Automatic annotation (TrEMBL):
<dbReference type="Pfam" id="PF03171">
    <property type="entry name" value="2OG-FeII_Oxy"/>
</dbReference>
<feature type="domain" description="Fe2OG dioxygenase">
    <location>
        <begin position="214"/>
        <end position="313"/>
    </location>
</feature>
<comment type="similarity">
    <text>Belongs to the iron/ascorbate-dependent oxidoreductase family.</text>
</comment>
<dbReference type="GO" id="GO:0016705">
    <property type="term" value="F:oxidoreductase activity, acting on paired donors, with incorporation or reduction of molecular oxygen"/>
</dbReference>
<keyword id="KW-0847">Vitamin C</keyword>
<keyword id="KW-0223">Dioxygenase</keyword>
<dbReference type="Pfam" id="PF14226">
    <property type="entry name" value="DIOX_N"/>
</dbReference>
<dbReference type="GO" id="GO:0051213">
    <property type="term" value="F:dioxygenase activity"/>
</dbReference>
<dbReference type="InterPro" id="IPR026992">
    <property type="entry name" value="DIOX_N"/>
</dbReference>
<dbReference type="InterPro" id="IPR005123">
    <property type="entry name" value="Oxoglu/Fe-dep_dioxygenase_dom"/>
</dbReference>
<dbReference type="GO" id="GO:0046872">
    <property type="term" value="F:metal ion binding"/>
</dbReference>
<dbReference type="GO" id="GO:0031418">
    <property type="term" value="F:L-ascorbic acid binding"/>
</dbReference>
<keyword id="KW-0479">Metal-binding</keyword>
<keyword id="KW-0408">Iron</keyword>
<dbReference type="InterPro" id="IPR044861">
    <property type="entry name" value="IPNS-like_FE2OG_OXY"/>
</dbReference>
<protein>
    <submittedName>
        <fullName>Non-heme dioxygenase N-terminal domain-containing protein</fullName>
    </submittedName>
</protein>
<keyword id="KW-0560">Oxidoreductase</keyword>
Length: 364
């Protein structure tokens, strides 16, 4: 039975006012058993729906980028074909041999852990729900909109409008690893958009010339061990409002992708990064590439960390995007109207994460 809306709002506010997030609930238990508040318990219809969906042992494709810089070579052609197939059939793929040192990846994940596990008074200084703050910490951006809260805390680094971040604005405990990781991502993101362009049959620089990778935001997630992972989620099912998302996850796992109406576990692969197609690239590709539903489940005994980099294009000044004209044919008529990234992102954040995809707002 769901709690009343008035009671729920009161409980949400009490939780929010602590500015301590989910980890604060765990710490408050002081070694005792953690009791999950009602606001985190998923509605009965969601839990029932889960029982109807099968699990699959199929695995998200793994793409080896070794040789990707040798344009026109057979390794490059293989990689493009694998990206094409994965983007059409899964909307998700691992990349290995991507050029970012494992040390950089590990230090980024360690930085996320150290931020969340530092002195509470230091961490609370960053707690905010003001979307104008470029660096902010909170638990569930959609806390007051979703049907149930997710078992996670997040540090957001928003470069969607400024296109850069001043290192001095970052928390000192994770400043250097974050700057290092973002710098290393630059080349990989450029390469990924080249591969996606070629996979669509376009000129190599097409998506980069459209500046699809210009606006970025980083969501650093911390998922404390959850005593009731069958009753709550780390992240509700959703699609991403981005062109692509590059995800770094630790060895714990928990990410699941909805593939052919079955949940597929995205097993951790040491040193890999996960790339997924977002709503905006599905629109640009005129439905050739798929932005698919995914979620994260909790772990009963271990804390999990992940870092999602959302590549969102140009938001300021407003730039109009729409289906790429070369991909519109008599057989594949235009499926979407034009849009601005700013409008799309505003609509995305004005609703609960678990609500229906924003693609419906621009579908013809």
């Amino acid at each position: 039975m769901e709690i009343s809306q008035d009671s729920r709002i009161k409980q949400l506010k009490v939780f929010d006012d602590t500015k301590l997030g989910v980890k604060g609930l765990v710490d408050a238990a002081a070694g005792g058993s953690v009791v999950i508040p009602e606001i985190f318990i998923r509605p009965p219809d969601e839990l029932a729906e889960d029982l109807e969906l099968a699990r699959t042992s199929l695995q998200v494709p793994v793409i080896d980028l070794m040789g990707v810089d040798d344009k026109g070579s057979s390794p490059r052609e293989r990689i493009v074909q694998e990206v094409k197939q994965a983007s059409e059939e899964w909307g998700f793929f691992h990349v290995v041999n991507h050029g970012i040192p494992i040390k950089v990846l590990k230090e980024m994940l360690t930085g996320v852990s150290e931020f969340n596990e530092q002195d509470l008074q230091v961490k609370k200084q960053y707690y905010s729900r003001d979307p104008e703050k470029l660096v902010r910490f909170n638990s569930n951006y959609d806390l007051y909109m979703s049907r149930s809260a997710n078992w996670r805390d997040s540090l957001f680094i928003d470069m969607l409008n400024s296109y850069h971040v001043d290192p001095q604005d970052l928390p000192s405990v994770c400043r250097d690893p974050t700057v290092d990781y973002l710098n290393h991502l630059e080349k990989l993101v450029h390469t990924l958009f080249e591969l996606l362009s070629e996979a669509l049959g376009l000129e190599t620089n097409h998506l980069n010339q459209m500046e699809c990778g210009k606006g970025r935001s980083l969501a650093c997630h911390y998922y404390p061990a959850c005593p009731m992972p069958d009753q709550t989620l780390g992240v509700s099912k959703h699609t991403d409002a981005s062109f692509i998302t590059v995800l770094l996850q630790d060895e714990i796992g928990g990410l699941q992708v909805l593939h052919e109406n079955q949940w597929a576990d995205v097993e951790p692969i040491s040193g890999s990064l996960i790339v997924n197609i977002g709503d905006l690239l599905q629109i640009l590709s005129n439905d050739k590439f798929k932005s698919v539903i995914h979620r994260a489940i909790g772990n009963v005994s271990r804390t999990r960390t992940s870092v999602a980099c959302f590549l969102d294009g140009v938001a300021t000044p407003p730039k109009v995007y729409g289906p790429i004209m070369e991909l519109i044919t008599k057989e594949s008529p235009q499926m979407y109207t034009e849009f601005t990234v700013r409008d799309y992102i505003i609509k995305f954040f004005s609703r609960g994460l678990d609500e229906k995809s924003g693609l419906n707002h621009v579908r013809i």
